[in-house]
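Hi all, long-time lurker, first post. I run a small reading group and we've been trying to get comfortable going from sequence to structure in the token notation. Rather than ask abstract questions, I figured I'd post a concrete chain and ask someone more experienced to write out its structure so we can walk through it together at our next meeting. Sequence below, copied exactly:
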Amino acid sequence: MLGKKMAFAAVLTAVCNLPRPALADDAGVPARDLMSDAYWAIWSDAEQARIDADIEQNRKADGSFEVDAPDGAEVKVEQLTHAFRFGAHIFNFNQLGSTKDNDAYKASYGKGGLFNQATVSFYWFDHEPTPGAFRFGGDYSDTERYWNSLSREEAMRERYWRRPAPGPVIDFLRAKDVAVHGHILIWGNAKPYWIYDWYCPENEKRFIDELGIPRHSDYLGWEPAGQNWNMGFMGKWAEAWRKSYRGLKEKGLDEKALAEKIPVFTANMRKIFRKRVFDVASVYAEAADSWDIVNESAGDFAKYGKARSGLPIWFSWYGIMPGDYPLHALLDAKEAFPATTKFVINDSNIKPYFLAQVNDLEKEGARIDIVGCQMHIFNTNDCTRLVNGATNVQWVGSPQIIRDRLDMMAKTGRPLHVSEVTIAAPGEDQKSREIQAVLVRNIYRAWFSHPSTMGITWWNTVDGAGVAGEPLVSGLFTRDMEKKPAYNALDQLINHEWRTNIDVPAKGGKVSFRGFRGRYRLSWKSADGREQSKICDVR
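-- Answer (accepted) --
Happy to help. Here is the structure in token form:
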């Protein structure tokens, strides 16, 4: 075991590429001692060897290509791109306060960076602030000049912090040959408040208010989105709605009975949700390679147990929602988007009822191409628990837990996107940052090794650039845009260990090799000494 830990220490030291500071009580502590013996017992020699073998089997393929080269001539095999999607959201586009910081942020996308896919913000509430007033192309408030005029504290209080207009972002990504993933079309927590304010008649509003059902726009006494919006608010809203639903049941009002009392609002919700899908598709049907069509709906499915309940409304943990809204969103998207667009259903509840929802939706005619599996460690104490050998942290406490959870979701028969990743450092000191790098390296290796995984997307890449309630130390960059050890750990994996660059002798007019799936350039000299090259794909 010690030999394995020392080998890992050597890798980590190279990966971090940073001078080790004189820590107060552990100056010169080798990387192997960053983690407990209990941690290394879980991420053991045997597990590391299995992960290596699985990566070799699942992420590589054999290729054989014709080359006009004499036998024995060396053919340079250079991997240009990965088939696997290494992603991050790009919600902080031009918002980091200086051109220098923004340029460093942008450099992480495309050639020379880490990410060949970016998740682009399409939050309904923020990109259609009033009906028909779409923030797609952006205005002065979306420019780098505007955001550079604000302090970080001022920027985080702005309504459109982390919600840049998608048009300029997509233009940037296309120019960098980075795949675009749209996030999101339908999510209960992103539905605009004007749906209720504008499209619920006054008599129906009075009826709803008298029943004590809170309005989403009331915020239940907390500050609104864009004004220190907090991750914890979601749970508080959900509890308030659950309490109101219990009161409705006591009054003999189920979903059908309530819908009969508010028929106009019920009908309008369905029409507006459908219109949302077609509005986005009318502008961006060809712009994104894939879309999160529905986000975090498995909890609602678990309540009703079927994708097509036939109910006119659902008592959702997002408030009153159109009945069967996940199914309708996917069916609407099938009408609105081209067949080449990949449809994703995305959730944090990586549990059996998410699997059941995906299967049931498909039985009802929905098309799902990719299943998105989120993994957020928002509590930095959970990172410390992992270091000390805890396994009950999200679904990444051990390689076996990761395999089991991905195996479960792979029963959908669909590729899996580890779609939103937060792995925080335990603190802000250098030792904590190196611990984060160890966690990142091991967890990414386990995800990458699974045969059903097609991509992994980091969430907040910059420390302190998320929203309230998310850890301030979960980035790959410091607040000053210095690369943290976790960034360098991913760079080592993505751009070095998981990239095939070799020289192979030609034989019989061909060159054969085994490499990571992706696009390659082959270069050689023909028999008459001329430089030759060709582009090919290893699938």
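A couple of things your group might point at:
The longest strand covers residues 74-82.
DSSP finds 20 helices and 17 strands in the chain.
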